[in-house]
Amino acid sequence: MRNLIERLVTALKKSGGEMPLESFRALVQKGRDSLFEEPDTLMELVIASGVPIVIEEETVRLLTAFRSWREETFCVVDIETNGSVPSRSQIIEIGALKWRNGEIVGRFESFAACSYLPENISDITGIFPEDLRDAPPLSRVLPDFKAFLGDAVFVAHNISFDYNFVSHSFERFGLGVLGNRRLCTIELARRTIEAERYGLGHLNVVLDINTLVHHRAYADALTASKVMEIGLKRVPKSVMTTEALIDFTKLPIAKAKRLLSEETG
User: Fold this and answer.
1) Among 1, 79, 89, 264, which is least packed, fewest CB within 10 Å?
2) Domains of the chain (ranges, CATH numbers)
3) Of 81, 165, 157, 159, nearest in space to 124 by CA
């Protein structure tokens, strides 16, 4: 399903952000994993995954291809886990905030009950078994988080870890794949901020963010949102839409910095 979502988004972007519904349905049908999958059902699953698409007047539109990033809702996420491999580990804490146009417009924070918490994880995070004893099960936390996330852009520092872990967890509990558009604050920072290192702890200090707590989910999400905010103030003026912003963070670093220098003279 995730590969299908990526192909559909790529096709929409190549067609200027929108295409006729019948063309979109044909792409869905072509990308089916099984002949028994109904295209209309797959389309519903794609939309439910958090992909920001709408169907209006027989046209499918990718909203992030038209919406200014200044008007976008970004959901900055950080998770703590009891291990590094999704198939053998679980999320023990989720912290997230919704950010739009310089303001925090929503907040999500929850522990998740866990039967096994290695000592080294407690040493890193400061989370101990007693903190999780009365926490809700992950099976209850994840639906609430999915509802909070909606179709906002999923933002994280080193996004591949958080995004893939959350997506695996969604699938594990029958919530479908994670299809939200994504933005990595490390990649944004590498193209807009000069620093010796781009770990969250280092940027927290050198950018004078100074969040007091580190390796706790909401605190790290808050720090990442500040990194994002600083980076967004420095993106080229030619980067106008959310999709253009996502593409900018994937440019070769030298090319992105050259673009910045050309615009600043």
Assistant:
1) 264
2) 2-65 (1.10.10.10), 69-264 (3.30.420.10)
3) 81
